[in-house]
Amino acid sequence: MADNTDKVAENVPGPYYCDYSCIACHLCVDTAPENFKMNEDDSNAYVYKQPETDEEKELCEESLDLCPVNAIGNDG
Fold it and tell me: Nearest 5 degrees, angle CA 35-CA 25-CA 60?
């Protein structure tokens, strides 16, 4: 489970976030490109836009479920 006390600094405020256990596999960026990006040095993913539609929420949840290191959280 993602640690909400160890969030990647670039995350925008809201329920979804990535923490620093991210291994930069790009799965979330590939799955939900409207919501996840890689940081400048490509070391961590982060949420750059919280989901606004049902489709975006579904893709964010899919990313959360598929993350190999459980680095994506949802405090919503």
Answer: 30
